[in-house]
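Saturday, quiet lab. Running sequence design on the structure tokens for the scaffold JK sent over.
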């Protein structure tokens, strides 16, 4: 449990730092960040699914094979090495040097000139400096980089209040998802006519969800699937609560439940459709919320110096939604099986 707690703590700190960094480069970078997280989920669930196919726990022998575990550990190690290399390369890019380092140093001032907007260091103010030296590289404009006018003290509570609907939407979105996936969906059993064994069925539903989540986050990059109004996003998030009764109407076989009742949706296909739709709407809704919350382009209430704080508050709300959903899953399980949700 201590190891799990440390892993959770380090993951939260890392994710907040990454999100705050991505927010400085605009909504496009934020979308790419979240789509990348979902892509990792697809790879992990795919490896687990292949491992379940190779070493099915429901086989007559019941012998576990070390092959899939070794493959998964090797892939994880390779991914960590590639990530370290990518981070090292990122630190050397002109965009990172110009935007992030000046942001951290608190030296950026916004100066309006007839030829356009340039960014000047405080120690260069009042001096005749060549525009080419002072101007942020053109490629940063294409990325939608937003640089603060003056880096001052930012109130976290003020930012949280400004973005309360975005934060509530992203938190509730994950709370709904985690209340049923995977605590309840893992108890859904294949129907009598299913081609899956229970172990493979469970592994496959993880893959289906992660594919849906990745697709939902990916389409956030296309204007056709974008909308930014806080009321619309909040309604979108709240409406996802309908997934809770829909999934409970599938072939849920939790401990303590009677096995003689025929579920309303007695079909593997319908269950997988609900799961991929759950993942798709989760990725799409949270992606739009996380893109809009720290963006001065899509969220007119946020100031440029509040961008990183807005991103961190939104990420904190996301993590809060994960914790709330995990806690709610015990209550949902208590309702469906009438048993002690902390046992078995």
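Result came back. Writing it out in full:
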């Amino acid at each position: 449990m201590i190891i799990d707690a440390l892993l959770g703590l380090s993951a939260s700190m890392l994710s907040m730092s990454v999100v705050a960094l991505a927010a400085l480069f605009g909504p496009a970078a934020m979308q790419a960040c979240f789509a990348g997280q979902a892509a990792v989920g697809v790879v992990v669930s795919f490896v687990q699914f292949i491992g379940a196919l190779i070493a099915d726990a429901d086989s007559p022998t019941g012998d576990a094979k070390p092959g899939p575990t070794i493959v998964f550990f090797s892939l994880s190690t390779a991914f960590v090495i590639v990530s370290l290399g990518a981070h090292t390369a990122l630190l050397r890019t002109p965009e990172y040097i110009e935007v992030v380092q000046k942001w951290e140093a608190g030296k950026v001032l916004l100066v309006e000139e007839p030829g356009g907007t340039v960014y000047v260091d405080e120690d260069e103010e009042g001096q005749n400096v060549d525009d080419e030296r002072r101007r942020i590289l053109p490629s940063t404009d294409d990325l939608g980089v937003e640089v603060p006018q003056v880096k001052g003290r930012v109130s976290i509570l003020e930012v949280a209040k400004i973005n309360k609907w975005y934060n509530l939407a992203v938190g509730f979105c994950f709370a709904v998802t985690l209340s049923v996936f995977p605590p309840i969906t893992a108890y859904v059993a294949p129907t009598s006519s299913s081609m899956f064994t229970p172990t493979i069925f469970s592994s496959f539903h993880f893959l289906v969800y992660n594919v849906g989540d990745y697709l939902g986050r990916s389409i956030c990059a296309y204007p056709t699937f974008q909308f930014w109004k806080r009321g619309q996003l909040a309604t979108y998030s709240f409406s996802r609560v309908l997934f809770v009764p829909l999934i409970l109407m599938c072939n849920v076989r939790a401990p303590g439940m009677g096995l003689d009742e025929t579920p309303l949706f007695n079909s593997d296909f319908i269950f997988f459709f609900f799961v991929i739709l759950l993942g798709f709407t989760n990725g799409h809704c949270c992606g739009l919320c996380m893109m809009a919350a720290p963006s001065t382009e899509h969220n007119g209430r946020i100031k440029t110096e509040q961008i990183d704080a807005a991103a961190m508050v939104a990420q904190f709300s996301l993590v809060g939604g994960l914790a709330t959903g995990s806690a709610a899953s015990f209550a949902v399980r208590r309702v469906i099986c009438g048993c002690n949700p902390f046992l078995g």
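Notes for JK: Residues 107-150 have pLDDT under 50 and may be disordered. The chain has one domain: 8-93+154-337. Ask whether to fix the surface positions before the next round.
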